[in-house]
Amino acid sequence: LVARKPSHGYELIKAIEEASSGLYVPSPGVIYPTLTLLEEQDFLEPLTTGNGRKSYRITTAGEGELQKHQQVVDVILARLAGAGREHHRHGNLAEGIYDAMNRLRSLLRGNVMRADLTPQQVERINAALLTAV
């Protein structure tokens, strides 16, 4: 994405979110360390902007590395776009499943963190989840 135009982290997060039709939104904890790593490898260089944000542009070395792996990048971008299309096609049905999974995950994390569950309860929950899938 940075090869198309210089971008800062937030722009990249939004571009990936848009490419996946909202299905995947990378966190700043994924984007910014990746940008730093690519800068350290001399694949990206920072640009100074007046708004205090650090933008990046691809370097000659980065362009070379991108060309070496272009097929892989194309597959990843196509899968991301395809996942977004599938998400839209199945929209409301999938949303209900995702919501239920998120509620269950939150409930289990809360109970496990408070240690409210006995080993037998954990075993029963585990068995029920394995049966459901």
TrEMBL record:
SUPFAM superfamilies the UniProt entry points to: Winged helix' DNA-binding domain
Listed transmembrane segments: none
Superkingdom, natural source: Bacteria
Signal peptide region: none
Pfam families: PadR (PF03551)
Domain spans labelled Transcription regulator PadR N-terminal: 2-68
Name used for this protein in its record: PadR family transcriptional regulator
